Amino acid sequence: MKIDLNKTISLTKGGLLDRENTWRAYFENTPDWKETAISLTAPLILANVVLSMVLSRMSGGFVSYGIGHGFLSALFISLFMAVIVLAVFAVVINLMAGVFDGKSDFSRAFAAVTFAMIPAWLAGIVGALIPWVGVFVALAGVITALVFLYQILPLALAIPEQKRVVHFVSSIILGIALEMMIGFLLVGDRLSQ
């Protein structure tokens, strides 16, 4: 498998501008999560992290991770955290789908989280260009990503309509709690010194 930039651009545009049709077409024959990672997730995470860091350093804008570190250290931390966040939310959403009478399928959950994150990743790049208010652009991207995630989950994991809100809210709360625990484990040693 290799990265097909045309496919990445097509899926990204479709995921933003023609969501329903792009999602439905993608989920008709959902590829394995590794194919989604190579064709969509990895290029978007790399673009988000590298461009937002470079643009932020050039413009004095907002960068989400690695503030106060050297460029390479911040780049590594940002890439690592972006991958961890995506993986944790895909696992949580997948597990919670089974709890709430949906269909557990990690490849579909991974694709759903990836498609939902497109506006957040792109807003992070744009936000890095704008000093002082870039954080609000990034926040708008995250809010949009949450809306997209709420919309895509029934399609991806067959979450019943009557359990959709509970599945969504409990998945987000559990995902954030796990992210905080992972973050504490990773940086907790430094804080205690």
- The total beta strand count reads 0
- Count of domain modules: 1
Our count of helices gives 7
Radius of gyration: 17 Å
Note the run of SSEs as H and E.
HHHHHHH
Low-confidence stretches: none
**Gross geometry:** globular
Strand content: under 5%
> Describe the biggest sheet?
none
Overall pLDDT confidence: 87
Structural class: mainly alpha
N-end to C-end Cα span: 44 Å
Walk me through the structure.
There is one protein chain. 81% of the residues lie in helices and 0% in strands. It is mainly α and 193 residues long. It has one domain (5-192). The mean pLDDT is 87.
Brief account:
The chain is mostly helical.
List the helices and strands and how they pair.
Blueprint: H1 5-17, H2 19-28, H3 33-59, H4 71-99, H5 106-129, H6 134-157, H7 164-192
Helix pairs in contact: 1-2, 1-3, 1-5, 3-4, 3-5, 4-5, 4-7, 5-6
Provide key terms for this protein.
193 residues; mainly alpha; 0% strand
